[in-house]
């Protein structure tokens, strides 16, 4: 499988159509028409025989950890593989490639809201056990109905987050549509 990294605004019509079909099949939604922040997303696509068979995207977010530690985070969404190609390790390959790439781009952390925790655990993602907060304007809100998983991209962060405790916190800025 060949990988390509493409900013949302650089996708051609055929790529947009293939990604839309993958995302509609998996999530029943289009990854860039839903929310404004998707216009600045960066897509990673896995290609076989000139067809996009696997996909994910990321947007930039800043997470603030307990003790005001600020972490540059790649928030990953719309991870999917064509239904006919599932079970062949394509999404795993894509995510491994992506996390390696993100560390070279200066990100300290990758995060996502999982549909299938067991899948991500096999790839060494960590379930966050602490509290999640969203900051909007001058207010901060607890968002205890959400679950995220993390992939530390630095050794220092991996040591800190591997042993996260229930009293640890992550806070991110509010974004329209989807908090996490």
Report on this structure:
This protein is an alpha+beta fold. It has one domain (2-173): Gcn5-related N-acetyltransferase (GNAT) (Aminopeptidase), CATH 3.40.630. The protein has helices spanning 13-27, 90-104, 117-121, 155-162; strands at residues 2-7, 42-48, 51-65, 69-81, 109-112, 126-127, 131-136, 139-142, 149-152, 169-173. Strands 1, 2, 3, 4, 5, 6, 7, 8, 9 and 10 form a 10-stranded mixed sheet that branches. Strand 7 and strand 8 (139-142) form a beta hairpin. The protein is globular and about 50 Å long. The model has no long low-confidence stretch (mean pLDDT 91).
Termini, distance in Å? 29 Å
CATH-assigned fold name: Aminopeptidase
Number of strands: 10
Mean pLDDT across all residues, rounded?
A: 91
Q: Low-confidence stretches at least 5 residues in length (pLDDT < 50)?
A: none
Question: What count of domains describes the coordinates?
Answer: 1
* CATH class bucket: Alpha Beta
SSE succession: EHEEEHEHEEEEHE
Report the sheet-strand fraction.
35-45%
Global outline = globular
- Radius of gyration over alpha carbons? 16 Å
Structural class: alpha+beta
Q: What's the tally of helices?
A: 4
| Assigned CATH superfamily | Gcn5-related N-acetyltransferase (GNAT)
Helix proportion: 10-25%
How would a textbook summarize the main sheet?
A: 10 strands, mixed
- Report the CATH architecture: 3-Layer(aba) Sandwich
